[in-house]
Amino acid sequence: MIDALAQQFDAEGVSFSMQDHLMMIEIDNPFATAKITTHGASLLSYVPKQGASAGKDLIWVSESAVYDGKKPVRGGVPICWPWFGKSDEEGLPAHGFVRNRVWHLEKVHTYESGVTEILLVCDSDADSHALWPHAFHLSLRIEIGEKLSMALTTHNLNCYDLSITEALHTYFTVANPQGIKIEGLEGSTLLDKLTYADAVQQQGVVVVEPPMDNVYLNQSGKVSFEDVGLNRRIVIEKDSSLSSVVWNPGPEGVKAFGDMSDDAWQTMLCVESGNVLDNAVLIPSESKHTLTMILSAESL
């Protein structure tokens, strides 16, 4: 399989490998190295070669992550779709089903600029219809360059409107999540999923205090946070995204995850971009919707 992919997608700086049971796409271009698995189309690594984050991965993956293909890899950028969080129907997987399906690699391209483009697709079939009875074509376009760009496009193939919630569930590597200040969420509608307190308007910057599971609705602008320990500011630009989610399980919550060590919460922070809860997207028949996230790092 690896040889066949290498022949089909003969692009400079792109190679293929297996990690346990998962196919990996590895990129090495003038701007960065990256790793993507076809299992869930999850990006597992993005290491810039220049600037504030040179040689330092923006993305966090658990040292205890499992690569057996039976569940999503813990970390990276899992795709939550077509629902975020728990399903309204009992017995269905949290965060949808596409993060645990094998996606098809459709395109690999290296531009003259040196930027690498990867296109992965996922189509509805009998298995997806058993979980969610709607027709769709889903694509994820990843561009590895000076910045990391991810664009998730949903094509509604039905003769009726389709409602979805979605998120790019990004796990960031941080030196210490405690006390990190997140800018750009001011004025949004805050829902605390741990306390289930009434919704309030976010006042000022968000200060991370694990455990934390906060949803910020009606928020479409740039989000950023300083990681003093790694001497960088992470910048998250988004398009067609009205929600952000901040999550860290903390010292007690992390114990519920068999694929995370007890101290894993001390080196990761999820800041997710999407459209969740009341920000659900209604896609007209035969129409498309694209959620875009662009990540970069700046020096402090």
From TrEMBL:
It catalyses: alpha-D-glucose 6-phosphate = beta-D-glucose 6-phosphate. One of its GO terms (molecular function) is carbohydrate binding. SUPFAM superfamilies: Galactose mutarotase-like. Keywords: Isomerase. Signal peptide: none annotated. The active site is at H169, E272. GO terms for biological process: carbohydrate metabolic process. Its EC number is 5.1.3.15. Transmembrane segments: none annotated. The keyword Isomerase applies. InterPro entries: Aldose_1/G6P_1-epimerase, G6P_1-epimerase, Gal_mutarotase_sf_dom, GH-type_carb-bd. Belongs to the glucose-6-phosphate 1-epimerase family. This is Putative glucose-6-phosphate 1-epimerase.
